[in-house]
């Protein structure tokens, strides 16, 4: 526990993960234990399919039943090749635009939680899409990557969690992020209040706040700068949110879990681990912490 200024700040711990564990009914049916939607991808970014797939697979690894990925057709076909466990919904065109708003909102209404952003790009039409669709989604919403840049200054109307690194935080809020942890905490708390969302600021120490309660996560290491780990984190958030957990609990659990998985991988592989390695470690940790 730390105490910058007068605000009490707690540390994320395994208890945050345990809090998000949900028991299944023995006679439960497909879809009852969580349905998630990932929206992203564009033809211009070569790695877009991988980013969308990493996020979707990470959400599945939290134990939910179904993940659907909505992406431009070319991207969606490549995502299909990553795993037979992923369901893709193919959109016309090379990037997301306003013509897709109705389709995306219809699918979002069927999901328990929605992630928007992986590999999306910043085409002007995509920026317009983001600003039109985000205020209309009422399901728990995770906003990551390019969607954060497109959503600059937006105040959310439904439950929302944003997962920026420092530059994305600055792009979304329009404010410079201080380097000192105590000042970062204050900046995150202010952003959470202003934009009516939970903020999970990724960094050497992650900062999580809904504007009232604030926690710092100290798991993780420098090897997690490898591409794709942020998408894994967003996917974990999506899966835990689809399991009907509150978004502050989701953010704290996901930050701790993702960082702890990274620490385990570092102990075994040094700094040579990659994002897909997390998909092996995460289920083992979840089982240890009550996901049975």
UniProtKB/TrEMBL annotation:
Enzyme Commission number(s) of this protein: 4.2.1.136
MF annotations from Gene Ontology: ADP-dependent NAD(P)H-hydrate dehydratase activity; ATP binding
Chain ranges passing through the membrane: none
Catalyzed reaction equations: (6S)-NADPHX + ADP = AMP + phosphate + NADPH + H(+); (6S)-NADHX + ADP = AMP + phosphate + NADH + H(+)
Cofactor list: Mg(2+)
Binding residues for AMP: 230
Quaternary structure and partners: Homotetramer.
Enzyme's top EC category: lyase
GO biological process, one term: metabolite repair
InterPro entries tied to this protein: CARKD (IPR000631), Ribokinase-like (IPR029056)
Lineage: Archaea, Candidatus Iainarchaeota, Candidatus Iainarchaeia, Candidatus Iainarchaeales, Candidatus Iainarchaeaceae
Gene3D superfamilies named in the record: 3.40.1190.20
Annotated function: Catalyzes the dehydration of the S-form of NAD(P)HX at the expense of ADP, which is converted to AMP. Together with NAD(P)HX epimerase, which catalyzes the epimerization of the S- and R-forms, the enzyme allows the repair of both epimers of NAD(P)HX, a damaged form of NAD(P)H that is a result of enzymatic or heat-dependent hydration.
Keyword Cell inner membrane: no
Binding locations of (6S)-NADPHX: 48, 119, 165, 231
Domain called YjeF C-terminal: residue spans: 13-289
Keywords on record: ATP-binding, Lyase, NAD, NADP, Nucleotide-binding
Protein species of origin: Candidatus Iainarchaeum sp
PANTHER family recorded: ATP-DEPENDENT (S)-NAD(P)H-HYDRATE DEHYDRATASE, ATP-DEPENDENT (S)-NAD(P)H-HYDRATE DEHYDRATASE FAMILY MEMBER
The family this protein is said to belong to: Belongs to the NnrD/CARKD family.
Protein name: ADP-dependent (S)-NAD(P)H-hydrate dehydratase
Pfam families: Carb_kinase (PF01256)
